[in-house]
Amino acid sequence: MSENEIICKTPDKTFVLGEQLGASLAGGDVVLLYGGLGAGKTLLTKGILNALKFDIDEVTSPSFTLVNLYKTATLDVYHIDLWRLDGGMDVVAAVGLEEILENENAVTIIEWADRLGETSFTNNTIKVTIDGDGDEPRRVSIK
Predict the structure, then answer these.
(1) Is pTM beyond 0.85 here?
(2) Which ranges of the chain does DSSP label H, i.e. alpha helix?
(3) By C-alpha distance, which of 24, 9, 27 is closest to 105?
(4) Which of 53, 52, 39 is nearest to 113 (CA)?
(5) What pLDDT, in 10s, does the model give residues 34-79?
(6) Exposed (0-12), middle (13-18) or buried (19+): which is 5, by Cβ within 10 Å?
(7) pLDDT higher than threshold 70 for residue 1
(8) Which fold has domain 4-142?
C-alpha cells in the first residue's frame, strides 16, 4: 500500500481496512501501529488476520503476554503489544524482536510502536497511525 489517509466512520470500516492491508502483506513485513487507547489497533489487526484466513475469535491484544503468535495457512503472524513496557526498557530485547524478524515467513504487527524509540528496520515496514477514540470517526494514515 502506498501512503494515504483514510477516514473510517465505523469500526466495521476499520476492520475492512485491516483486511485490505492484510491482503497486501508478505513474509518479512513489519506493521507498526500508532494510536491511543481505544483507537482500533487490535480491530485493525483482526482485519489483517481475517484476510489471512485466521479465526479472528482467537485474536486478542497481547497486553499481558506481550507477544501472540498466530499461524495462518501461509504466514506466521507475530502480534506484539508494547503498552506495558516502560520507556527505559530495551523493548526490542524484552519481546525478542530480533529473533522474530529473522523469520522470513512471518509478518510482525507491533501495537504502541512509539515505544520502540529510534529502532529502525531493514524489513519492509508499514506505519499505520490511527487518530480518534470513542464514537468519533478514525483518521488512519498508512505510510
Answers:
(1) yes
(2) 11-23, 41-51, 91-94, 97-101
(3) 27
(4) 39
(5) 999 989 999 999 999 999 999 999 999 888 889 999 999 999 999 9
(6) exposed
(7) no
(8) Rossmann fold (3.40.50)
**Domain residue spans in the chain?**
4-142
> Helix, strand or coil for residue 81?
strand
Cα–Cα distance list, 71 to 13, 30, 39, 76 (Å): 25, 16, 25, 5
Residue type, 25: L
Given pLDDT bands bounded at 50, 70 and 90, which one contains residue 84? confident
Beta strands 30-34 and 106-111, pairing class: parallel
Rg for the chain, CA atoms, rounded: 14
**Cβ 47 vs Cβ 16: under 8 Å:** yes
Decide: 128 and 142 in contact? Cβ < 8 Å. yes
Place of cell 470517526: 137
Instruction: Assign 115 to helix, strand or coil.
Output: helix
Residue 100 cell numbers, joined: 522474530
Residues of the chain with pLDDT > 90, as a percent, come to 72
Query: Residue 91: how many CA atoms within 13 Å on its side-chain side?
Result: 22
